[in-house]
Structure of Nitrate reductase:
Amino acid sequence: MGKHVFSSNLIGRDALSENTTIALKTRKQREWLVFLFLAVCLAPILAVALVGSWGFIVWFSQMIYGPPVH
């Protein structure tokens, strides 16, 4: 009887190990997709937005205060 309990625990561990492996594989795949989204989509959009915002701030401040003088 003790052997039967041990073998069922072993089967449970194998199933848990398989689920853990699948979960890790899914997590790694999701991490790659998030990284690609950040690197390919979000980073360029943020870069353009920041440069555009800085240009707008400089342009607007020059409208108010005039061009820089030497």
Q: What stands out?
A: The radius of gyration is 29 Å. The chain is about 90% helix and 0% strand. Residues 2-65 form the longest helix (64 residues). Residues 59 and 67 are 9 Å apart (CA to CA).
